[in-house]
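In this section we walk through a basic example: taking a raw amino acid sequence and producing a predicted 3D structure, encoded as discrete structure tokens. The instruction is simple. Fold the sequence below.
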Amino acid sequence: MISKLTKVKRSDILGPALYAPVREDFRRKIIAYKRARRVEVGDKLTLTFENRDTLRFQIEEMLLTETITSDAGIQGEVDVYNELMPDEASLSATLFLDPPRDEDPRIRLKRFLGIDEHLTLHIGPHAIRAAFEPGRQEADRISAVQYLRFPVSAEAPQALAAAGTPLAIAVDHPNYQERAELSEETRASLAADYA
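The resulting token sequence is shown next.
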């Protein structure tokens, strides 16, 4: 069995021609799998924890959507998504900022400027500040999709492995304060990444 932290290789990818016939079944399985890895933090932030399975799905979807079929193009997508792969020293996640739709899109995201300093994952007694991917925020604008890592100590995966360990995501931004308690199903799914 391949570890959920192992980087995707070109040989793992079907590509559009082979993926299209199996897409619906693969997509249905991944969507069900991601339910435990998706966390709503209030009504304006959603976070999805990534691993080899979720990233492989994203690669296949991108290749199909963009009709990328060359080996160089496929390898390029593999390389991009492998940058999001969690590892022994970090969990990784994709964060979606979803402000109200009735506001001007140029204005509505600005309230999240500085969010990169205000998001923490709690694993039992461990409080882990998120490290955001650079370049997705400027002085006056922020992307609605953010990629981040939670650098974990050696003790955090051990805490994840213990059934019943409480997990939470907390946001303490001046414009948005929310806390989401993560389910036991989420804890077990993240712990499986380190098994």
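Looking at the output, two observations stand out. The first helix runs from residue 16 to 34. The first strand starts at residue 38 and ends at 41. In the next section we compare this with other chains.
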